[in-house]
Design goal:
Layout (H helix, E strand, L loop, with lengths): L2 H56 L12 H17 L4 H12 L3 H15 L8 H5 L20
Amino acid sequence: MSAEEWTLAISGGSIAVTILIFLAGLFYQIKKSRNEERQRAVEESKRRKLESIANFAAYRFVLTTTSDWSCEAKDSFNAALGRIPIEFHDSPRVLQLYSDLSSNFTAEKFYAMIKCMMSEISSEGSHLENSHISTVPKRDYRLRSESPTAPNLT
């Protein structure tokens, strides 16, 4: 091989290596971007699920026998209940508990469903006890009373 041929071969090899390095860097950036986007989607899904659980649990007081809850509170509870199969569509266990809850509502089924939804988001949810979510505020307190005592929430 002549010197000119060697120069061309080395130049061609250098260009090929440069292109390969560029493509590897580009591939790495695309893969990293997809992983970050996937992670953001998972975090957003967890946030929406947690919001659904919070709303579902927060409006649990409309389930008490007191019939004077506002229509807004009842609508909010029903809206939270309606979001469950949408937000937890990827959890057969939650969907089964949701179906069971609608067929014959009991407090135990309600607690089991909240615990299951929490465990779908975090392992911390398995530590919930019924007493953590069973307290329902009584309607006999007055928030604007002059009484210095706090309302009894048990």
